[in-house]
Amino acid sequence: MSRGPGSSVPLRLAAYAVLAAAAAVVLVPLLYLVTSSFKPAADFFTSMFLPLGDGFLGVRWDALTLEQFRKLGQTDIDLPRAMVNSIFLSSVTSVLATLICAAAGYALTVYRFRARAAADWLVVAALIIPPPLLIAPSYQWLHTLGLLDSYAGLILPAIAPAFGVYLFRQAAKQSIPPAMVEAARVDGASELTIFFGIGLPMLRPMIGAFVIITFLAMWNNFIGPQVVLQSDAKQPLAVAIYQTQTGYYSDYGVLMAATLVAVAPVAVLFLFLQREFLSGLTSGAVKG
Amino acid sequence: MSGAASGPSRAPYALLAPFVILFVVFTLWPLVQSVPLSMSHTFGPGASLHVGWSKFSLALEDPRFYTALRNTLVFTAGSVFIQLPVALALAVALNQPWLRGRTLFRLAFFAPQLVGLVFTAVLARVLFQKQNGLANTLLAEIVGPLNSLAPGVFPSPGAMLETPWLEGLALTTLIVTALWMYAGFNMVFFLAALQNVSRELEEAATIDGAGRWARFRHVTIPAIRPVAAFVVLLSIIGSFQLFEMPYIMLEEGTGPRDKGLTLVTYLYKNGFEAGDLGYATAIGWLLALLLGGVAVAQRVLVRDEAKP
Asked: Are residues A273 and A212 in contact, defined by beta-carbon separation less than 8 angstroms?
């Protein structure tokens, strides 16, 4: 191992110590979330993480239980239904938003047309609208359209985010060579064929990132369903778990198990697409 | 124009149409409507009465609006002056060429993002309970031995268990929770920027005899400035819109005596608990103006600093 200029051994050890401490601080709450989901209700407050006893490492391993997960179906809020709602809302929104934004970003990059400057300006101007400003007028407008308490009222406003068009425009500028589009045109391919056959495959890394970004955004959307949806049966997990927490039925073990179940699918999705997600996330900022 | 008449001339419009139509109907139109709505008193979502600028003057005379504004500004300062330096420090540490386990550290710091905002708030509310919450239990465990070493310096374990995270300390707790959740997120941006810093430039500076700090100050900082400006702006915008965290974690969404009341929580409570959509929208416009001011100020500052 060679020593870099000026990084002495004590300095390196200090860096490792600080990083390890920081990682511990970050991970302890997650450890708590996992362990308390598997504890019997009686042990919830008597031990910090795992139930204490005289087993290996001083833990009562045989006390660990799935009882909290079994209770998930019996709370006054239908959590399995909420899970299905969340999966439906997030999948539909992420797929549609990605297609719509990719098409728009592609169009703004590949074509020269009269309204392009105006459309470009619209996308950038839209980035500065703070979403909270639109909550009340959107609520009124969805009421007028008869879309309150419907999934359409939640999905339609969420599938045309201007920042998505912005991200795809950046990605298209970097990854779609104009010569390739021109060559396909000369070969007689239709414009739509070129978009689906050349444009979308070239945008694949950003598509991966944006699917996750929009999936996560809808999965964690709280204010939207809280305002637009009224029936409890239609609520996604974010609102349902909040209601579990504030309801008179407040059992911490069940709450932690429900949260773990809500977080798990997203974590798995992320672990599979981590690289694309991180590069897509930073591409707009770093390559500018 | 080349080729068939139905070719390139219509294609861009067809590809843009879904975005433009949805954007106009569900973003632009509500934005236009927000102007008359901020000058209305509403009776349910369907009926309203024009009341001029009175919702704006109401806000400017409303002590709770100022409490919300103050809390939001304090939280924003916490994000910019505590969270971002931590994020930068983590990124610099992770960017050291000799570091092992970089991927694991990065994953660990980024992990809170996987939990997401809403579920982080649910978890934090449990962690920060008095008596039984993990934060207080751990603090009590730590001060026990410290007290026997240096009596009287630290609070007793019993007092530690009573730390009012979700009550008197609500704003601090929000800053800590946001630090937990977003430091790793912002670190990713800094790390990406640091990895783009030219190695040649750093080596040239080293050969010229620049020390560690001089290299950081004169090579690294200027190189990451554009990304840093972006992260600061994003962080300010996000902090100004803080809602889910306090709304879920704190009693009534505000904490006792409005200790954790934020602008958007106040907007939401006025619009959807008190049913005053006009006041909610007026608060929304004041928020938009504040953010617009921040964006302009930041532009000017960054431009000035960029000049040699």
From this structure: yes
Structure token pair of residue B86: 């931590």
Q: Do B118 and A101 touch (CB under 8 A)?
A: no
> What value of ipTM does the predicted structure carry?
0.89
- d(C-alpha A211, C-alpha A215), whole Å: 6
Specify the pairing of strand B47-50 against strand B40-43.
antiparallel
How remote is the C-alpha of B214 from its chain's centroid?
31
Backbone angles phi, psi at A111, to 5 degrees: -105, 150
Contact residues on chain B for A29, CB-CB shorter than 8 A: 123-124, 127, 134, 180
Closest CA to B18 of A241, A97, A211: A97
The beta-carbon neighbor of B188 closest among A32, A160, A282 is A282
What 3-state class would DSSP assign to B48? strand
Give A-chain residues touching B13 at CB under 8 angstroms: 107, 113, 115
In 3D space, the residue among A110, A116, A283 whose CA is nearest the CA of residue A210 turns out to be: A283
User: Does any CB of chain B come closer than 8 Å to the CB of residue A17?
Assistant: no
Torsion of CA B47, B52, B54, B57, to 10 degrees: 140
Distance, CA of B27 to CA of B4 (rounded, Å): 35
What is the spatial distance between Cα B172 and Cα B107, in angstroms, rounded to a whole number?
Answer: 26
Q: Which residues of B touch A226 (CB under 8 A)?
A: 272
Residue A69: exposure state from Cβ atoms within 10 A (0-12, 13-18, ≥19): middle
Q: Kindly report the CA angle at A34 between A32 and A40, in degrees rounded to 5?
A: 90
**pLDDT digits (tens), chain B, 308 positions:** 343 334 457 889 999 999 999 999 999 999 999 999 999 999 888 888 899 999 999 999 999 999 999 999 999 999 999 999 999 999 999 998 899 999 899 999 999 988 989 999 999 999 999 888 899 988 888 888 888 887 777 888 888 888 899 999 999 999 999 999 999 999 999 998 998 887 788 888 888 888 888 888 888 888 898 889 889 999 999 999 999 999 999 999 999 999 999 999 999 999 999 999 999 999 999 999 999 999 888 888 877 665 54
Q: Whole-prediction pTM value?
A: 0.91
Cα(A243)–Cα(A262) distance, integer angstroms: 14
Distances (CA, A) of A234 to A91, A140, A217, A249: 16, 20, 18, 20
Establish if A195 touches chain B: CB-CB under 8 angstroms.
yes
Q: Which residue has the tokens 């209305």?
A: B40
Distance, CA of B297 to CA of B305 (rounded, Å): 12
What six digits make up the tokens of A18? 């600080």
